[in-house]
Amino acid sequence: MERKTNSPETAPDRDRLYELSEFFRIFGDSSRIRILYALLDREKCVLDIAKQLGMSHSAVSHQLQTLRANRLVKYRRDGKTVFYSLADDHIFGIINQGLEHIEE
Fold first, then answer.
1. Which of 19, 54, 67, 96 has the CB geometry, 3.0–4.6 Å to 73, for a possible disulfide?
2. What is the pLDDT, as a whole number, of residue 10?
3. What span, in angstroms and rounded, lies between the C-alpha atoms of 13 and 25?
């Protein structure tokens, strides 16, 4: 992978860097990381995620709300059930790159 070179002159503006720091802040909570990881293979409802992770329904719902607000997960409704999935392949890539980095 070719690495882009940045200099202070080409760095994003302050607002964009703030947005980037907020984006990475979302990954700073292990519950949110666990939920994202649970969604890597397929979409799931809140109850399935809670059961898989041993978390309460309300805790999972709260974290999903944060993940949704930050566009890391998306949802679809099927009757009364809401299914969540990763928003796009970038999220999968970010998680995998993070794992690769800590395993080096």
1. 67
2. 76
3. 18
Q: Residue 85 and residue 72: Cα distance in Å, rounded?
A: 9
Q: If you search the block for the tokens 């503006």, which residue do you land on?
A: 13
Buried b (16+ CB within 10 A) or exposed e, 51-89: eebebeeeebeebbeebeeeebbeeeeeeeeebbbbbee
Written as one string, the DSSP assignment of 6-64 is --TTTSPPHHHHHHHHHHHHHTT-HHHHHHHHHTSSS-EEHHHHHHHHT--HHHHHHHH
Successive 10-residue mean pLDDT values, the chain, 104 residues: 61 89 91 95 96 97 96 96 94 90 92
Place of tokens 């309460």: 56
Question: Is residue 49 within 8 Å of residue 35, measured between CB atoms?
Answer: yes
